Known about the structure:
Blueprint: H1 2-24, E1 28-33, E2 37-38, H2 42-50, E3 53-65, E4 71-74, E5 78-79, E6 88-95, H3 107-121, E7 129-133, H4 141-156, E8 161-167, E9 180-184, H5 203-209, E10 220-225, E11 229-233, E12 236-240, H6 244-257, E13 264-268, H7 272-275, H8 280-286
Parallel strand pairs: 1-3, 1-13, 2-5, 3-6, 6-7, 7-8, 8-9, 9-10, 10-13
Antiparallel strand pairs: 3-4, 11-12
Helix pairs in contact: 3-4
Amino acid sequence: MAQKTLFILLFVASLLTGCAEQTFMEQGNAVYYWRTDLRLDSLESAFLRQYHIHKFYCRYFDVVMNDAGQPQPNATLTFTDTLPAGLQLVPTVFITEDCMHQPHPQLAQRVVDRIVQMNTTNAISGVREIQIDCDYTDRSRLVYYAFLEEVRRLAATRGLALSTTIRLHQLQMPAPPADYGVLMLYNTGDPRRFEERNPILDIRDVRTYAAYLAPYALPMAAAYPVYRWQRQVQGVRIEHTVEADEILRVKKLVEDKRPQLRQSIIIYHLDEENINRYQPHIYEAIYHH
C-alpha cells in the first residue's frame, strides 16, 4: 500500500513538474536584444516575423559596482520603438560577478522595482517573467543564489517567473533557484587562447561539459551566437565570428545529450549586421525543433 501511495505521489509530482516546464519553457523561437535603445529597423522586424519569434529577451540595464563599492544600475535601455503585438518581452538584467562577492540586502528589491517601474513608464504590458544574467563562480555562487531566491520571491508577488543564464562551467554546480535556465552556448572559450580556439564558440569547449547536461536539475533553453567580436591584441585588430557549421555541430551535440534543449531556442543577438551574417537556411536550421 505504501509503495502504491509513493508511486501516486511521484506521478502527481511529475505532472506538476511537466506543467511548470510547459508554462515557462514553452516550445518556440526567441532572440536576445542587447542594445541600449529599443529601436527595430525593417529588417529586424521582418526577422521576427519570418522565424516566428515568440520571446524577446531584452536587456533593461546592467548592475555594476561603483567607486564606493556598491552595486548601481548602468547603461539603462531607452524605448524608442514598441514591440510588435504578440511578442512576449522578457526584461533581462546583467549583473557583474563582483556585485555578488558579498550580500547587498536591498539589491533584489531595487532590481525588481526598477524593472516594474520601467515597464510602467514605457507602457510595457503582458510581461510574464524576468531574467537575471550573471557569470557567477564558486566564490560568488552562494551570495548569487540567495539574491535569486529573493528576486524570485519578489517577482512571484507580481505574478512573474524568474529565469537565469547558465554558462557551461556553471553546469558543474548545483542548479540555481529559478524557474528555468538559458544555457549560454557562446563566450565558451578563453580569449587569451584565441590562436587555438574561437573564444565565442568551439565545440571542444562544449564537449568538456557535455556530461553535465543530462542530469542538470533545471529546465533549460539554449542560446546560440550569431555575433562578431572585435578586439585589439598587441596593436593588431582581431575579429572573431563563428562558422555556421560549428553552431549546428554544437546544437546537435547538446541536443543529443539533452533533447529538451530543442524546445526553446534563442539567438544572441538581434541586430541587422548579425542577421546578414548567415543565410536564411542557417537560421532555419538553428531554430529547427
